[in-house]
Amino acid sequence: MKAIWNKTVIAESNNTRVLENNHYFPADSIKDQYFKPSGTHTTCPWKGEAS
């Protein structure tokens, strides 16, 4: 499975987890140069905190 944004592969893994038709990539499968830490957090009752 590949995550593509603006014709660029930003994550790739054969080991995604599918929940409600959404693929979740393992942290080590993302290409760090396209991501940065965020001070903003959201909380989902069943997925937990995300940032």
UniProtKB/TrEMBL annotation:
<feature type="domain" description="DUF427">
    <location>
        <begin position="1"/>
        <end position="51"/>
    </location>
</feature>
<keyword id="KW-0808">Transferase</keyword>
<dbReference type="Pfam" id="PF04248">
    <property type="entry name" value="NTP_transf_9"/>
</dbReference>
<dbReference type="GO" id="GO:0016740">
    <property type="term" value="F:transferase activity"/>
</dbReference>
<protein>
    <submittedName>
        <fullName>Nucleotidyltransferase-like protein</fullName>
    </submittedName>
</protein>
<dbReference type="InterPro" id="IPR038694">
    <property type="entry name" value="DUF427_sf"/>
</dbReference>
<dbReference type="InterPro" id="IPR007361">
    <property type="entry name" value="DUF427"/>
</dbReference>
